Amino acid sequence: MNKNTGALLDVAGLQVLYPIRGGLFGRPVGHVRAVEDVSIRIDAGETFGLAGESGCGKTTVGMAILQMVRPTGGRVAFEGTDLTSLATGALRQIRRDMQIVFQDPYSSLNPRLTVGESVGEPLLVHGVARGHDLKRKVGDLMEIVGLQPSYASRYPHEFSGGQRQRIVIARALALRPKLIVCDEPVSALDVSVQSQILNLLNDLQQDFGLAYLFISHDLSVLKNVSDRVGVMYLGRLVELAETAALYERTLHPYTEALMSAIPLPDPVRQRARTQVILSGEIPSPSNPPTGCPFHTRCPIAQAVCREKLPALEEKRPGHLAACHLRD
Amino acid sequence: MTENTTPLLRAADLTVAVDGTSLVDGVRFDVAAGEIMALVGESGCGKSMTALALMRLLPNGVSIVDGEVFLAGRNLTQLSEAEMEAVRGNDISMIFQEPVAALNPLMTVGDQVVESLHAHQGLARREAMEHVLDMFQLVGIADPRDRMRQYPFELSGGMCQRVMIASALICGPSVLIADEPTTALDVTIQAQILKLIKEMCADRQTGVVLITHDIGVVADTADRVAVMYAGRIVETGSVFEIFAAPRHPYTQLLLKSVPRLDDKKKQRLHVIDGVVPDPQHWPTGCRFHARCPFVSEQCRRDRPPLDEVAADHMVACWHQAELAEAG
Ligand SMILES: Nc1ncnc2c1ncn2[C@@H]1O[C@H](COP(=O)(O)OP(=O)(O)O)[C@@H](O)[C@H]1O
Ligand SMILES: Nc1ncnc2c1ncn2[C@@H]1O[C@H](COP(=O)(O)OP(=O)(O)O)[C@@H](O)[C@H]1O
Ligand SMILES: [Mg+2]
Ligand SMILES: [Mg+2]
Question: Is residue A237 a contact partner of residue A39, using CB atoms and an 8 Å limit?
């Protein structure tokens, strides 16, 4: 049997450890356990939302999928091919199918290149287009993301944050990828511009059948874009479900606290809510707590939570959670 | 605005400019004791410049060119720098978005807060230390004795923000200016800090100017709201009134464009077309006219006055009456 399950992307048991170097000779003295045992499946045309607070490992998951960071464990299968065993050269072809868009549109564009050169770069590098054809393709891409093709001759500093993010998206689209990892693509933008970019990403998905891994710390943004959502804490997935199911009834106490911490944009309802305010801070991923990683901040933790790591189990159809106490 | 009582803090037609270009233009608002007034608007609207003008901490080359700031009736704009120095910290203090950057990296956080107390109240060091310890406890810093001996880089962003708040409040100022105090923090930490600000405000009857671009934060925390666009206040009112019956098209669109936890999946978001122009290109008439769906000839030509449309509800829009009727 073919191992290809039909999923576009199948991440299984992903682990990424970053060495902590110390001492005189820079020897590894420990590890940041950035990602531990993360499994995610993304189908063609689907958006998988990845949530969690800063430092929980979201960016590392995104980069490990693209092999920009090499995983220390697990596999990343793209259309059935395990990327973790591919040599760097062999990844080139696969990289055409997968792109990444980062949070900061300021640092992700080369200030010395015109916008047109930036957008066209992947086409040139992969030998897809040159000369007139390249120019026309760049113009088309700019139009697709809602920018005037005549802007192609301008430089990034002439554009606002939202426009720059459109340029970055145009470049990501150039090779007609099947998957785009969007790492906090709207977090640095104002709400009004945020919604422009979210609408654009939703439109592009419709038009091109794109799949997204959409990374965000903002659960209200994820609700808008995602088909399914996974919530991470200290490098691990603690809950994963269809968007509607997750937002209707959270199972993990961490997801609950995260939802509850987001203020509703409605003063009457917001003030009528009972908020779960977590005490304490996120522990260090170089020295995670024993047992359930969330037990040090969990409002309902029991003895078992301090001792045993809860498995990510299917508690109801399609709804997974890693909690000893909830089902 | 009622004229018969002296407000705690009043910005009276405050205008701030650099090289003849105004960045803040005739800003007017009052803040009462024990009241949290949110100043909201997209980035580049002049919120931070307003805050810095209130503190008389404007960057080089930028100055107050018109209007006054009154603190309990005292005109701060007429004080000498030495007099103003004594007012800062004692009567009015400020916290910033980047707590780690705002602290001195070379000094333990305990010493920094002791310093700010010492400078203002001439206390002996031991006495000051005890005071700081109490304050650290009050702002929810766990193990305050140990924390006091640490440097900013050893603490998390949330912890540094607590240190900043402790430092800002230690001399018991009557006004606190908080410029995006939670923007750089995770939501669970944001919830802790907002709760702290609300409690401090209520317990000490501090007047708070809370600057934010996060509509959820406004809904959660503010008593009153001032909406700023391109250097001007376009609408003010109680938080309930502003959310239930916003009159200015900018306020209406700003509130509508937020992705919400209670939206449907992949629901199209409202957008505000275009971006905030920079101060050199602020339009004539109503500055929002180029982005406004209700624009008319009058809007392009004449500046709309900030008129009282209901009790404690002011709006600067030529069409607010029609818009109110249309609902
Ligand atoms: N290159 C690196 N070397 C060492 N540690 C890293 C590196 N990149 C990230 N980390 C650490 O790994 C953890 C996860 O980081 P990241 O994936 O960036 O999280 P997120 O995107 O959720 O904020 C954090 O503790 C972070 O400090
Ligand atoms: N030192 C400065 N000199 C000239 N213009 C400035 C300076 N600092 C900020 N500005 C401009 O003033 C305007 C208002 O900025 P700011 O008050 O920081 O806005 P906000 O806090 O609402 O995002 C912006 O257009 C900004 O570019
Ligand atoms: Mg990240
Ligand atoms: Mg600002």
Answer: yes
Average pLDDT value for chain A: 92
Which helix (H) or strand (E) is A153 found in, with range? none
| CA of B183 vs chain A CAs: smallest distance (Å) | 10
- In this structure, the answer to whether residues B296 and B153 fall within a common structural domain is no
State the best of B194, B271, B276 to mutate against chain A, taking most chain A CBs within 10 Å: B271
Same domain, residue pair B207 and B102: no
ipTM over 0.95? The verdict is: no
pLDDT at residue A2 is higher than 60: no
B2 occurs within a structural domain: no
Per-residue pLDDT for B1 more than 60? no
| B101: number of Cβ within 10 Å | 11
Measured CA to CA, the distance from residue B285 to residue B304 in angstroms comes to: 7
Question: pLDDT tier at B2 (50, 70, 90 boundaries)?
Answer: very low
Q: What pLDDT is stored for residue A1 in this prediction?
A: 38
pTM as predicted: 0.91
Residue B318 lies in a domain: yes
Angstroms from B97 CA to nearest CA on chain A? 14
- Hey, are the CB atoms on A277 and B195 less than 8 Å from each other? yes
pLDDT reported for residue B262 = 79
pLDDT tens per residue across span A45-79:
999 999 999 889 999 999 999 999 999 999 999 99
What is the extent of the structural domain holding B166? Answer: 98-172
B254 close to A (CB below 8 A): yes
> A104 contacts in B (CB within 8 Å)?
none
Domain-located, residue B241:
yes
Q: What percent of chain A has pLDDT over 90?
A: 80
Per-position DSSP letters for A8-66, written without gaps between them:
SEEEEEEEEEEEEEETTTTEEEEEEEEEEEEEEEE-TT-EEEEE--TTSSHHHHHHHHT
Q: Which residue from B minimizes the CA distance to A158?
A: B278
CA-proximal residue: ligand 1, atom 7 (nearest): A18
The residue in chain A having the minimum alpha-carbon distance to the alpha carbon of residue B268 is A199
Q: Do B259 and A194 touch (CB under 8 A)?
A: yes
Cα-Cα-Cα-Cα dihedral sign, residues B119, B123, B126, B128:
negative
| CB A234, CB A285: distance < 8 Å | yes
- Residue A115 has a CB neighbour count (10 Å cut-off) of 25
Domain edge (last residue) among B172, B198, B226: B172
- Nearest-CA distance from B77 to chain A in Å? 32
Q: Is residue B1 part of a domain?
A: no
Exposure string of A126-157, with b = 16+ CB inside 10 Å and e = fewer, is eebbeeeebeebbbebbebbbbeeebbebebe
Which CATH number is B196's domain given?
3.40.50.300
**Atom 3 in ligand 1: which residue has the minimum CA distance?**
A18
